[in-house]
What does this fold into?
Amino acid sequence: MLVQAGGGNTSLKTESGLWIKASGTRLSDAESGDIFLLLPWDQLNRWSAGVDEVLMGLSPGGKNVRASVETAMHLALPHRFVAHTHSVRGIRWLVCPDRTAELEQRLTGLRWARLPYVHPGRHLADAIRDAIDARDIDLLLLENHGLVFGADDSVELMKLISEVESRLDVAVRSIRRASSAPKESAPPGWVPQSDDVGLLAFDGDALRVASGGTLYPDHCVYLGPSVAVAQDLGAVPLALVRYRECHSVDAKALFVHGCGAFLRESSSDEARAMLRCLVNVVNGIEPGTRIQYLPDSQVRSLMVWDAEEYRRKVAAEIRE
It folds into this structure.
């Protein structure tokens, strides 16, 4: 509910430099994997000045790895500890533009700022600096993206994350599987997903939200833009053709009305994680709510961005 696949990040500023997660690695591997690297301040200064294009460094295990695509974001905040999450609870609010007033009420008393969507990386870091503008801000809400927390003490950071997650929690949809629903008979080349994921196929409004576009960056990075939806198993071929005509790529995820959810047999662990994330997000959005999706231009930029190509490559190598 906080991070999925290779998304999200944590960082620590020290006298020597910035400790941050390597691009494409998973925070869930933090205690068992060699996923962090230390970036010395002189190297960061050169990179920030545009002298170095890509941030590379050695992990404690001696691996030459690329720093997180969001390193600039972590540098933009003055706090010693920074955590960037792709909070499911947060995203539920940040894709619903008509719920701003209620969101503000829930965050009363906290020091926060909200930013419209900006392409990740240096552009986002610049927007964060402008939003903070010498104010004491400990929480950033990034529309169609996630949350950023800052603190000078790790315990206080965890308390803030817990507090915000509690305040943003909402009731989830009550969806029931039709008793007459057919057993998942997977189309050729597709694998049925678990019941809790496939349950979304039994709610028309939920499918409207899930298939309407890209809600946040990692969805299109790991799962492709949107998901394909078919009215029944017989309509799957046509649904896949229409998806390709619309998005110029083949669908990786498929929902069949009244039947279930499917992923391609070749799908990665990251794709499975992002499909579950999508279901968790949609389940917490009230039926009939107006949704704000990422513009097509932003989705295309994300899918061809070399930094995201690198993340996908690293993730594939880790899981081999």
